[in-house]
Amino acid sequence: MITTRRDTIKLMASAAGLTAAAPYISANTASLATGSATRSAVPYQMKKLVHGVCYYPELWPEEDIDRDIAEMTKLGINMIRIGEFSWSSIEPREGEISTAFFRKVLDRFHAAGISVVFCTPTPTPPIWLTHGHPDRLFVNADGDRLVHGSRQHVSYEHPAVRTACYRIVEEIAKTLGDHPSIIAWQIDNEIKCHVAEDFSPGAIVAWHKWLKNRYGTIERLNEEWSTHIWSTWYQSFEQVPAPLKTPFLHSASLSTAYRLFNRESIAEFVDQQSEIIRRYSKAPITHNTNPAFSVNHERLFKNLDFASYDAYPSSTQWHSLVFRSDMYRAAKPGRPFWLMETSVSHNGWLGTHSPMHPDGYLMAETVLVYGLGGEAVCYWLWRQQRAGSEISHSAVLSSWYKPTTGYSQVQQVEAARKQLEPFLIESEPQVPEIAVTWSDHARAMIETEPMDKDENFPATYQALIQQWQELILGLGYHRDVRFEGASLEGLKVLVTPAMPFVSEEFLQRVITFVQNGGIWLVGPGTGTRDREHTVPLNAGLGLLDSVAGVETQFVFPLTGTDITGTAANKTLNFTGWCAAVKPAHADTRVLGTINSPLMPDTAFLTERRLGKGKVVLLSAHPTGAEGKAFVENLIKGYAKEAQMAAPFEVSAGTVVCPRVDREGKPLWVVINMDGASGRLKLPGKTLDAISGKTIGSTLNLKEYEWRVLKPGV
């Protein structure tokens, strides 16, 4: 018998005791089925650790190039990233395109043995594209039209803008795509860094086309959004507004859909550029992003070859490097990620700057990124900008061509890179047994409908996911941050916090994971909304009620109510929204109850056995030191039950990056990141891989010190 996708949903629903939903699948959800988690058919073999700089030869005298090459060679820089802001240099007047200067640059660097990542220059369109054409400019959510002078000021939805973008990308790819120096391409630069959703006339035209493609008929849209509320019922797609200013608030369905539309459209823009480049070049393609940017990260990387990110953390913000490395390492399994931009000393632009890095921090940062699965670390930038809005940003060399405070730190990085390289190219990151779910659909919903206003509650979706990731890191477990559509291969515990809409596709994979012995810890705020940002009609948590074996009685905000809960003989305080539930299945156990006459005999923590594994529902967010300790114990208990490997016994501020060599033997990269020294308890005989010396039962690290270990030899 041939089974269809719909049959599969029925089978999985039956196995979990849930009722299958209607077969309608949103455009956002459908894209996850073929998302970025698919492993490459051909295993990737890293040949070197890339040590790079962002370089802008078009801004300086051409005669400086040779001395730049000499200085880079002396420092061990083996890659430059160029081109992303060069549109006006390549096409000073519309249609007059020449890449001759950049070919000469590529020739010189290739002769010197320095590789190149070439970027498409679409983030900074030249003045001729928009002067006299205000309809081509970006319009923000307040209805303000942006002007030329920075970057990302145009509307990528305007046909003339896209035509111009694709024209210059094709000319660059056609004339430079075969150059032997190019080892990779980068599309654009930090898309949606400075702007979010586009409300230009071109965007609104594209919005109406997107709606028609997504819903098919206006009747379906009206039904899904329940538009008779406040008489927002529509007669045609062209009547559906973009969510610009209105007297009060737009429908949640409309606001979230507009975010999804914009993020799908910008991913298609990246796809199209990639398709053009692939006609002329075999080099892999990426984009440098950041979890805070207004993109759908999973969809963005779906058709790219590898993931890369930017990060400019001060020495007290090093956790962000771990979070982003955990996230983008898992984005394209089997392919190392790149840190495409970071500062050698401090971040800065007009009016602000961050503190300078302490001595040794840059080295520790770089070793951390390499150890966690990075192939490349690249500095922004080589030479300090002599003009513009980022003149206060650090660089390797000053504008007057003298070493900066970061120069000696780059020397430290290169010394570390040389020591690390032989070990890391012969190993790969160990697959984690625990992961936190990242859902771009959930993020769009929470941007429309923030989860809480409590000052102690994370203000953004990213901050909430990072809170869970840092909790797991602090417990000593190696972890992933996996996209909603990713494979669950290798995991024993999956933590899914704050996913308002839980799709059928996601549930299919999670049910299989649990039935095979996995433990799914469902965090607060999950399941409270349907796919169109409406309230579920079949159950308080939609299909999640059936999977968790509960019946939701109430969904309400706990912040400021002083309502407590009891679990494990502890009284807990809460923040955020709560789903008060009762067990609805013989296999469901109540582990935590709510203490309030408003919702008697209800629970906030349940556990249901499903096959060989368990579904654990934590439907309220414990707060304070007691709440943090409770959640930590919850994770540790289920990690032990799932027979996860014992966590690393490591001091706070020190990170272990577990890897596996080609013989299947463990290799650990250990780094002190907080500059306060560190300690790691070792499991028996352990060798320092570089010195060959045996280490005792405890490894002590000085501030920003790092080591490569071979445990258990």
From TrEMBL:
Record bears the keyword Hydrolase: yes
Positions of the Glycoside hydrolase family 42 N-terminal domain: 54-419
Segments passing through the bilayer: none
EC number: 3.2.1.23
Gene Ontology MF annotations: beta-galactosidase activity; metal ion binding
CDD domains documented for this protein: A4_beta-galactosidase_middle_domain
Claim: Oxidoreductase is one of the keywords in the record: no
InterPro entries: Beta_galactosidase_Trimer, Class_I_gatase-like, GH, Glyco_hydro_42, Glyco_hydro_42_N, TAT_signal
Residue span(s) of domain Beta-galactosidase trimerisation: 433-643
Biological processes, Gene Ontology terms: carbohydrate metabolic process
Pfam family, one: Glyco_hydro_42M
Protein name in the entry: Beta-galactosidase
UniProt organism field: Cellvibrio polysaccharolyticus
